[in-house]
Amino acid sequence: MERGRVSVSESDRAELERLIRGRNTPQKVVQRAKIVILSADGVPTSEIMAQVQTTCPTITRWRERYAEKGVEGLCRDATRPGRKPRISPGQVREVIERTLHTTPPQRTHWSTRTMAAASGLSKATIQRIWSDHGLQPHRVETFKLSRDPQFMEKLQDVVGLYLDPPEKAIVFSVDEKSQIQALDRTQPGLPMKKGRAGTMTHDYKRNGTTSLFAALNVSNGEVIGECFERHRHDEFLAFLKKLERQTPQELALHLIVDNYATHKHPAVQAWLAKHPRVQLHFTPTSASWLNLVERLFAELTHNRIRRGVFKSVAELEDAIRAYLAHRNEQPHPFTWTASVEAIIAKVGRAKAMLETLH
C-alpha cells in the first residue's frame, strides 16, 4: 500500500459499494467504506476529510485496517483492552471488613456516602463492592426465637398437621387480623402513566376499624371469614360456631391457632368440651410464622387494603368480603415444605450464634 493510497480488488470494490448503498449498513461502516474507495481512486487525504467529515488519523487507521483485514475488518471494531482496575484487592478487603465489623460515628450502619467518605473511594465503587459481595447494610431482617418450654411438642404437632393431615378431617389455619383501619385519603391521587408511578397522599382520615377472623383450609386454600367490630373471646366463639355449622358434620376439625388469650378463655374451653370434633392446636409462643393464615393476611393487605380508599367501616368490610369471595372462586393453598428436623436445625444455629454474642 502506497502512502495515502490502497489497492482494492474488483470483488472488494463491489462489496464496499454494496455496503455504502445498503439501507441497514451502520453509518460508521459506510464512512469506512467510502474512505477505502476514495483512497483507492487516488483522492487526496484532505479532500477525503472534507467529503466524509472525519480526521486524518481516522482515515489512516481505516486504510491500514483494510490493508490488514480486508472488508471484514471495516465491519468490526477492534477489541479494546479492558480498563485496569483502579482499586487494589487490599482496598476491597478494607471496605468489606469495615462494612461487616464497624459502624460510622453516631450511626447504626454504613451508607455508600459515609463509606465513600471514610475509604476515599467513590460511591459507585462502594456500591459495586457491596453488590459483588452480597452486602446490604441498609437492610435488616427481624427475628425472634421462641422460648416456649413446649416448643418441640407444639412444633411437631403443627408441622405434622401440615405434612401428614389426619384422615376424615379438615385442617384449618385460624387467626384474627385485628384493627384493620378504614382509611380515606385527604386528597385524590393521580393515576399511573408511562414514566410515572401512581400517587396517593401520605396523610389520611381514619373512619374506624374492623377485625377479620379467618380460617384457611390447608388442603385446598378455601377461606371462611367474618368481620367483627371487636376481637374478644365472644367473637372468637361466634366464629368457631360458624365453622362448626359450615363444615360437614362427619369430619373432625383441627384448628391451628396462636396463644392469644381469647383462644383459651374458659367460655371457649367449655364450648369445645361440648363439641369434641373441634380441636385446637396451639403454635409455640413467638412463632406466628408457623400459622399459614398469616400468608393470607399478607396477601389481603398487599392486594386490597394498603392502597384502598374506604370512607366507612362498611366499605372496608364489603371490600374484604368481596376479596375473599373472589379468591374462593379459584382458591390456592399455601404448601408447607419445611420438616421438623430442618426447622430445629435452623433454630439451633440461631441460638448458637446468639450465645456467641453474649
Task: Give the mean pLDDT.
Answer: 89
β-sheet strand percentage: 5-15%
The CATH class designation of the largest domain is Alpha Beta
Number of strands: 5
CATH architecture type of the largest domain: 2-Layer Sandwich
Q: How would a textbook summarize the main sheet? A: 5 strands, mixed
Number of helices: 13
- Net shape: elongated
Structural class: alpha/beta
Descriptive overview:
The chain has 358 residues and is an alpha/beta fold. It folds into 3 domains: 66 residues; 44 residues; 202 residues, Nucleotidyltransferase, domain 5 (2-Layer Sandwich), CATH 3.30.420. Strands 3-2-1-4-5 form a 5-stranded mixed β-sheet.
